[in-house]
Automatic annotation (TrEMBL):
It comes from Paenibacillus zeisoli. The keyword Iron applies. Keywords: Iron, Iron-sulfur, Metal-binding. InterPro entries: Elp3/MiaA/NifB-like_rSAM (IPR006638), MJ0683-like (IPR040086), rSAM (IPR007197), rSAM_sf (IPR058240). This is Radical SAM protein. Residues 19-281 form the Radical SAM core domain.
Amino acid sequence: MPETIYEHIDTKQTLNRVKEERMPFDWSINPYRGCAHGCSFCYARAFQSFIGRGAEDEFQHHILLKQNAPDALEGQLSRLAGKFGYDIEAMRRHIGQVTIGTATDPYQPIEAKAQLTRECLKLLAKYRISTSITTRSPLITRDLDILTQMKDISVNISINSLDAGLIRRIEPASPHPQMRLETVQKLAESGVHVGIFAAPILPLLTDSEESMDALLSAAKGHGAAFAMVSLLRLSKDVKAWYMGTLRTHYPALVEDYAELYGQGPYAERQYIDMFKGMSAALLRKHGLSAIPGEGEASGPVSLKGRIPGSDSITPPGSDSTLGSIRRTPSPSVRVKQEEIQLRAEQLSFDF
């Protein structure tokens, strides 16, 4: 495995306005560029082209630390406060929601040492900014002293499967799924509004009714208030890397993915519609809201008939061009048992 390089850079601004109207937040903060978790499907790999880099190994083995991110954020927030006559409540309403971790994991291993996310979080708490955080890492519990004091905070723990062996192949350096569930529980017990991002759900790997039902049941059982579910999106750069991962670990699926994603970055329409029906039914079954901040979904409900023409939840793709392939195939490369055990070193990698 290549040695990871950590490079310190300066940033002109930490708080970046989100111009995409479909996004449920107004500003984003990403204290790092690149991510050591190395998820093969990560959409942020495509952003490497903005700085003349590729979506391959460099994304996870050359991490840029925005060393002045807290200072730049302090400057931005101070100037905004001045524009509002230091009326913090008016400024807070103007800013809306800030989301940390839209293009990197803000609690990837280097954060244990660098503490850039923690220092930015202190400033958002100081100015009482509505904040959302997305991460796969239990390291976020280190900052409970700040999170529990924030007026408007929501945490999204990303987890798309309980299958530790599959996770280790597709997300080679990310925390064990059980550690993520325990993080949900610890945050919830501390009074932090927390849920999961079941994303991305991977066709033919993590999209079965059984897999989704187990995941949402576990999330609810550990205190999740909501669960946002979304399917895999494959941009051109990310697609090449992800397909390479499939060829290594699940070669039998390569042809099916080529067909399912043959028209662009999204799966075929029929598959998407069927999957949406199944996931909506499962969210209702477990009483989970699909949107952070909304009340719990009414439930439990019967799952029969949720997809037209079925007596139960139809597995996505069963009537699509994918044919009858429904089971996750055995990997061509076996993973040693010790590689999928709970590992405390996920919080303390060597830097």
